Amino acid sequence: MLEAYSRAWTEIDYDAIRHNVKEVKKLVKNTKIMGIVKANAYGLGDVACAKALQKCGVDYFGVSSIDEALNLRNAGIQDNILILGYTPSMHFHYLHEQNIVQSLVSIEYARELNAYAKENDVKIRCHCKVDTGMCRTGIVYQEQDKHIEDIYEEYRLENLCVEGIFSHFPVSDCLDEDCTEFTKKQIQLFDEVIDLLKSQGIDPGIRHLQNSYGILNYPELEYEYCRPGLLYMGVTSDDHIKIKTNPDFIPIMSMYANVSLVKWIYPGQSVSYGRHFIAEKPTKVATMSIGYADGLPRLLSNQGFEVLVHGQRCKLIGNLCMDQCMIDVTEVEDVKEGDVVCIVGHQGNEVVTVDQISRMAKTINNETLTSISSRVPRLKVRS
Ligand SMILES: *Cc1c(COP(=O)(O)O)cnc(C)c1O
Description:
Blueprint: E1 8-12, H1 16-27, E2 32-36, H2 38-42, H3 46-55, E3 60-63, H4 66-74, E4 80-83, H5 92-97, E5 101-104, H6 107-119, E6 124-131, E7 139-142, E8 145-146, H7 148-156, E9 160-166, H8 177-199, E10 206-208, H9 212-217, E11 225-226, E12 253-265, E13 270-271, E14 277-278, E15 283-288, E16 306-309, E17 312-317, E18 325-328, E19 340-347, E20 350-352, H10 354-360, H11 365-370, E21 378-380
Parallel strand pairs: 1-21, 2-3, 2-11, 3-4, 4-5, 5-6, 6-7, 6-9, 9-10
Antiparallel strand pairs: 1-12, 7-8, 12-15, 12-19, 13-14, 15-18, 16-17, 16-19, 17-18, 19-20
This protein binds pyridoxal-5'-phosphate.
């Protein structure tokens, strides 16, 4: 482990990405990976993650917005970049200047982008987004409402190079009969669109459909690309969700803070805002320098969440504060100011996982990771 940072920090093992990508490749053998590095790679560093992915042969990246795409370009990443979301018209010029691929969020949007491209005498690279059931972006192509003509039109717009097509799964993480039926229907609708395009003599371009759970539960699909985000971070959304396959991922992120103070309190004394913890016996309390403004969910307060000090499990007591929180270290010998508290990761023989935080905070790992705030340094470690 690196020398302790002054307050709270994460350590990120970007080398473990290689292992996680190998695990993904075992599942989707003939499908290339589009590395989703949106939201600063789920908070873990978009440029660092993209560079680690490049070393694994990943040559396509997905981001949510133009600023995220430019961030990769400014860091010297020259590969294909697809913007999964919406780019406002004031930023259209970046698309051709920086050779970025734009998702077509609707037919109206495609026409607007085409008009811009025509006016400026440029061609803009695009992927057609088909809404087979997410009802978020894309041209609707669902059992109840099939807009195939709009899809044809996108491919025929003169100043757009539509070189790929994709859709998105809302319930690929769920193995109930209803969910699998829904997902299989989506796959069927997606394939139907591809066949119809071909029947019109239109080349659909590269096809991609699977997000992380799409890879875990539908590894047999053989499109040109898949779009994992979470998986190369070495976690799933929730480790209690059953999956069909049995991959072995290494979580790349651990999180630490320092002990700032240790003191004994006596029966009847209370800890933190709201006085929700009241000592029943003499209790040794350590204050540590991390709080909800660092991204540790305030919902962990008073629920018995445990962190590690000297490799021993210690409960959070009282409400989490913005920049600090308190733990019961009665059973831990020789705790002192400056000691490192492990909030996520291994210490001694014990481990705390992001899943444990997410479950107690009633959320998914995606949110827990993206909530780690910008004031928490991301330190690069070798495993
Ligand atoms: C975020 C996102 C992904 C990646 O999702 P994971 O579940 O993290 O793999 C893939 N495709 C689209 C369209 C997304 O928005």
